[in-house]
Amino acid sequence: MPESDSAFEQNLLKDYGDPIMSYDGQGVLTLEDGREVSCKFEAGQLRKGDVLLLCDFLPPVLFLGTISAIRFEGTTSEGYRISCDNRIMEINYLPDLPRDGRTGFFAAFRLGEMNVQMTDSPTQARSVRFGVTNFQFVGTDAQQSGNFHFLALPLKLKGANSTTELSIRPLEHDTKIMRRITTLKITDVTCEVVSDIPEDGSIGRLKEVIDDLCYLMSVARGTTIQWIYCNHYNAADECIMRTHSPRITKPFSPSSIIDPRVDGRHETRAFLEQGYGVYVSKRDSYGLNRGTIAAYLDAKAEQDYLETRGAKLAVAMEMLKAVFLARIIHESS
């Protein structure tokens, strides 16, 4: 990180895990009682999804008990504007305290969401890229971005009232990333889902589509797949804003139903496109996004003993049974 009065002297996020993106600078934390306290900060997102904020308060502020904050705003050393007003929860401060004799107060927070604005110019975003964890795939269409040649997986997802066209693209070093994930059974971003922003400029509906797609991808691969960040790009393909979301991720589990290698690429595409409409129509009535699929995936996780996995599978089957019974009662009434 650059050396300046506003910068941390080292990468402090490493005490919590491996960061995929980090920022440092000066900011203001707004407390529940309305007070505003200044601080040097380091913020970022870990590869497993957690979004964190570390504060070094200037001048030192004495807090008694838990720090209850409702908002954070800051400016990074690169000149980016960073903000959060969604679920700011204090956690233990893990980095070593300074040994230079300086007195101060340090705090760490887990954030519900963090927005990073790269530019102040009124540039409109034209496309978005969602960073997706642990999805192993081989694309069907050869594409190029600069000197990077890759195989993308284009999808046309047909819902009840709309059709969404998007593309899944591997990261530039996806082979190395995937080798590390499968060996260490960890979590990391392997690809990005790319889509144009609707004409009305809202991406709320698009986020719902990506949420549904991640559930389908999880079923196809037998492991939890989730998006954890969303980058906004202008017409010149420049990233103008980034949103970090601490969505629930899980370590990689090699239990694919469909072959993730080249032999299964067409089957993967067919499953995602043909299964999307069925998933959306059954999602609410079967509770697919409210624990049913998550319980099934958790029962397949390799990290547990076989007996524990069997117990979890029994729980998943009981959840399915409860869903079917509820539907039968509803249809007969």
Please describe what this structure looks like.
With about 325 residues, the chain is α+β, with helices and mostly antiparallel strands. It has 3 domains: about 10-115; about 125-285, no CATH class; about 285-333. Helix content is about 25%, strand content about 35%. It contains 5 helices and 15 strands. The chain has a 15-stranded antiparallel β-sheet with strand order 6-7-3-2-1-4-5-8-15-14-9-13-12-11-10. Helix 2 (about 205-220) packs across helix 3 and helix 2 runs parallel beside helix 4 (about 290-300). The chain is globular. About 30% of the residues are buried.
Secondary-structure blueprint of this entry?
Blueprint (H helix, E strand, L loop, with lengths): L18 E13 L4 E11 L4 E7 L11 E8 L4 E4 L3 E4 L14 E6 L2 E4 L9 E7 L7 E5 L2 E11 L4 E8 L3 H11 L4 E8 L7 H18 L5 E7 L5 E6 L20 H18 L5 H13 L5 H27 L1
Antiparallel strand pairs: 1-2, 1-4, 2-3, 3-7, 4-5, 5-8, 6-7, 8-15, 9-13, 9-14, 10-11, 11-12, 12-13, 14-15
Helix pairs in contact: 2-3, 2-4, 4-5
